[in-house]
## 1
Amino acid sequence: MAKNLVIVESPAKAKTIEGYLGQDFIVKSSFGHVRDLPKNNHAIDIENGFRPTYIISDDKKRVVDELKKLAAQSQTIWLATDDDREGEAISWHLHEALQLDNKDVKRIVFREITKSAILKAIQQPRTIDYDLVNSQQARRILDRLVGFEISPVLWKKIKGGLSAGRVQSVAVRIIVEREREIEKFVPVSSFKIGALFDVEKGKTLYAEASQKVVDFVAAQDFLEKCMGANYFIHNLEVKPAKKSPAAPFTTSTLQQEASRKLSFSVAQTMTVAQKLYEAGKITYMRTDSTSLSQEAIGKAADTITKNYGEKYVQTRQYKTKSESAQEAHEAIRPTDFNTQVASQDRNEQRLYELIWKRAIASQMADAQLERTIATIKIDPVGYKRQTGQDPQMPFLVARGEVIKFDGFLKVYIESTDDEEDEDTKGMLPPLQIGQLLHLNQLTATESFTRHAPRYTEASLVKQLEEMGIGRPSTYAPIISTIQKRGYVVKEDRPGKERTYQILVLKNDVIQQKKASENVGAEKAKLFPTDMACLVNDFLVEYFAQIMDFSFTADVEKEFDAIAQGKQDWSKMIANFYKGFHQHVEESAGIERQQIARERVLGDDPVSGVPIKVIIGRFGAYVQIGEVSDDNPKPPRASLQKGQKFETIQLPEALQLFKLPRNAGNFEGKEMVVGISKFGPYVRHDGKYYSLTKEDDPYTLDESRAISLIEERRKADAAKLIKSFAENTEVQVLNGRYGPYIKVGKQNIKIPKDKKPEELTLEECLALAEEKGKTETTAAPKAKTVKPTAKTSTTKKTKSTTKETKAKKDAASAKPTNKKPKS
DNA sequence: CAGTGAGCGAGCTTCCGCTTGACTT
């Protein structure tokens, strides 16, 4: 029997470490926390110094039993949980749950899973740091008090099942406030002056005025002054520049890049990363640290030398940006840089490549660039001759960029969220000061200011991290909680067409054009529900302290003081609770009716009765008139996607009552057009047919409704390979991914050795039954995730040369916080 | 999948952070 029992948090880690230690060591995992506050309301004894009661979590009883048994048989127990606040608490809870009072217990810590780090840690054991444990208890108790005292107020005053908490309520607030900011936003138009010059041999030069002109008249004026003007190079400036690689991934930056580059949801990124971690391909994926072990840096340098040559190596240690970071782990990196293919699974491999490239690039040389700025003077000779006036014209500026040494760009280019149109940055043609330029055309293009972007899952995580709210292990759960509670929905929204004007000066003639662009289209963005706005306003009013964006940062300072032994945890909590609980009581005392959940929109033009919008159990709806004995069921209609309680106006509200409506008859049965939460539909004979994007449910006529039904039937018939007269529930169909059998609502893939045309009814049923059996034992499938995208502004007629995606990314790659190796 | 919204009242919901599987659908 082993003399030493080592306990870590993660089983994958246990496996690795066991390999580093000798036969005398057995390494086991606690699977995270083993004890927690019970779910009831008596977990904390408020009268007696907030003394907590802990119980062993149900799903940890077996783990604790096993560890207890092993501990009894061991001489020394090494508590090797993570080197942070939660890890220290886990060690203490293990100490308590395993009843280790009379045992030889040693607490060890390490921040990288390397043999040398583990062996060193064994040489330097310490005892449990009770100050640090107390700071965790304070954190835990504060969160419980906040969550379990405010949530019931929401149940009573607003709706059952709602929740509030230090983290989630602020996350919702961020989304609500952004949405209101967007609603208030009024785009301002201005005109961008762009000039295209023909330089020698088919080469062109594009330049822009550094300031936009305010309106159409000013744009016209500008172009008129340029009629018959001369253009020449006023100044040329060539400057060297450099770009540095980004730090290796933390959880948050991995989630952001996987969202941008692979269109993964935050949860999907974590599931895939977990798989890679369990397979030993990457280091731990829940980390806030950007630092790498010296050993890893050395190995990365070896790989870079081997693959790209020594001059591409530039090792560095990155300093973590975030103040709240606890850095118990390394940054996310491959465990072996020589492994290029880590998995057969496509998504695992794609995420692995991202991690590999980012980690390798972080140890590579800066890219060396050369930036050229050409200033072009406009001499309005034509205008001077015509009018005798000499207007001052602004300079035009052309920018070019050439990569002299690619360095880390050879491997990895970080992408960014903002998509501000960057200037086209390629190489400029050869130019000389004083050189006269031949104008091809000068344009003034109208553009509009844009509102701040709506949050994606990943950009919300970024925002939370910057505010120090939430931890790497909770980013994905936060996103899912605020959606589960009905505060936030992740949705696509179509954009709107908007026209804009272009003025073109070519061959001394000014032409005026109109073009249109689609603006405001959203993909996989987070939208607040009406309930979120209601709850948020309530919380902001009555719990301003908790809802303050710096609340977490403020209490973190106090937790730090507790960890340093400078502050008593129960006093800190008592101090907080005094004010907090008073607010709970105040808010519990208010009348339900005082919380605004109704708004009058105006009077119905037909009947003259008031129409109001009400926030109900399933979201907001519009109602004509009041409920009374004469009018027990006033007309009601739900708001549609994109409509909000706060902003809906009377005309839109009246529209809602026009659906569902009769759309004529077909095959002797009525057709009804309506809108459900899945979009507009035609219902006929109990079946639903979706409208296309081009169809308008309010104006759709009988013939179009019939053709929708017929089109669908035709498409279904084209898919049909085989059907059976004896059992109409069973069909053999051709799907997007090949032929399959449909039995009722269940779809079954056809094995390769069977020909779909020759399947008999019996075979189909047998396959269905077989699938029914295996389904129950098979692993749950990863959900398919829709591509995440950003606010898109696609210009239809604009044809300025766009740089390649890679270059655009490169141009906007942010400098990173780096610290020279000490 | 495709629509809901009364009122009564019992009994329930809820936090954040640390870890993975074992469960259905």
## 2
Amino acid sequence: MIRRAKPVPPTPVPGDQARLVTIDMVARAADVSPSTVSRILNGTAVVSADKVKAVEQAISDLGYVPNPVARGLAGGRTLSVGVVTQTLDSPFYGAALRGIEMELLAAGYTPLFISGHWNEREEQHSISVLRARRVDGIIALDARLSDEALVALARELPVVVTGRGLEAPNLVSLCFDNFGGAREATNYLLDLGHRNIAFITGDPQHQDALERQRGYLGALAERGVPADAKLIIAGDYREHSGTQAVLRLLKQGVHFTAVFAANDQMALGALLGLYQRHVSVPQQVSVIGFDDLQVGQFSIPPLTSVHQPSLETGQLAARAMSALLEGRRSKLRMPQPRLVVRESTGPCPAA
Amino acid sequence: MIRRAKPVPPTPVPGDQARLVTIDMVARAADVSPSTVSRILNGTAVVSADKVKAVEQAISDLGYVPNPVARGLAGGRTLSVGVVTQTLDSPFYGAALRGIEMELLAAGYTPLFISGHWNEREEQHSISVLRARRVDGIIALDARLSDEALVALARELPVVVTGRGLEAPNLVSLCFDNFGGAREATNYLLDLGHRNIAFITGDPQHQDALERQRGYLGALAERGVPADAKLIIAGDYREHSGTQAVLRLLKQGVHFTAVFAANDQMALGALLGLYQRHVSVPQQVSVIGFDDLQVGQFSIPPLTSVHQPSLETGQLAARAMSALLEGRRSKLRMPQPRLVVRESTGPCPAA
DNA sequence: CTGAAAGCGCTTACAG
DNA sequence: CTGAAAGCGCTTACAG
């Protein structure tokens, strides 16, 4: 038989009685019914001015903080929203998470973060955890779930999803123009005179990786520069693969004067590979990344990259969620891709 | 008067009826009382084998998932633990958060992450948010709260805190040996023959920054190398300050052959500053960091650094919390500091 | 070993 | 405008 230690009665801590004050105590202090307190709290009905005043007085006197747990059980809303991200530990998602936290908190919601690890099953599980906790809505960053699953989920509660375009009731999607960004980066290189531009692909599992590759190819095609399969190397979005890609290119003796990595992490890796082989950047080879991670500002040389507005994306997603939760549908515009030129790119060296 | 749209009755989604199944339905299906189901679920009493079987059957038939919200209200425990971190968006805390999430989930708890932004007031607020949500315990990474506040908090619920040594009932603290790590790094440089070792300090608000500085000074003293105030430059733990520090040193014409930055972010910044001034690393100047961030593996050159076991710290913290929650006090040992030598350090150049 | 009952702290029809 | 009552889904003494 399992014996659990009896919970020790909480010792009240000075200035921290939140735990003890209930709506009933407030009601008693203000000489009204709990219902009335609740209505004032939620703006759920008109209450006479004097009662409002009395209740507000009592609330501040007692330091009352409503219990979201009870609220969730009774009223259906918990004022919390689930955020499924791929990992908590990513230079890329970090800023978005920060943006979400910032805006959600400002709107009075508590975010519940949970990781899906780029895995549909885990994601599904994370979502059921969130739903069990009765979150009012779910924000999913680059969800792995199918469109159908997302649409079905949106029948249950409001959903905001990034990284794909999807139209459905009770759901808003936020999609960055990866194609356009990649196209712009490639064009920039082309403008600098580069013709042999290597491309390190991202993980093909990611829609954005594919889009970026399309952008690269598109720009080449538009300018009449033939794409060369030897210049396209598979990467996986991680630094190491960028290093490997460049090393392989060099070993195979493929001629290239620029490399466009589908994300900054690989671009950083590429920089290292080139350094190891004593290829100078940007004198001999230009390098361009995608995402504009914070660290790219301090790489050697500082990295030219397509800025991806992660923080803003997070903020937009959170705002879209607040709107949905209030029954509005906010129309929001993602910022356009923007190339940030730093020192890793330069003119094509004379042959 | 505020009118809220009536909640639309949830459309059941195939395979996702979690929301609808309650303990009563399970009880009915298994032909027992809800109490019994609860007891089986919580292992809170011995139940006859056949009932257990019937209940387990019903649970899996119906796909029942207990509602943690109701559980929290009724039983006092929510199976969630609050995690206050300084920011969600940090190369440093990320790994720790991941470690915490991993272990907490494995132990059956849901983590609630929230940021304090290095600010005691915000931290305090975050903690009250967590308590309002009835978390069962709180893990605080490098809390800004005073020891007293933490001890007081621990009277209310289990607390695990990193970044300081603190003895108190219902509280466990996890402290990395910053002094030892810094001492080791300095000694390594000393062993390489360096005598003019610049030190870029961290934010003096951080205890660990101070410890690291002490370690630097300590090693110097032990080896009879006089500390030179001109070699100690104030930083703030961010990249930019590392760059500035090095630039200033160079401009002032201070002689140094090595720089020890109190964290990797500043070391990376220092690398950039040296690059800008065409000082080669490690031929002319060696650079050593602290934390061993992921990105340091791909800096140019790859950074020698004191490894800080962030992931493990997170895991240990989570395990300590589970233990506390079960009434045990786990005794855990933080990994020792370990210098990871890469390519940014080399022998002191001949004068 | 197991039920019936009360209660956790709120919200929300239902009646005034 | 405002109360009393029921109920959200569980847990836990209290009695067998």
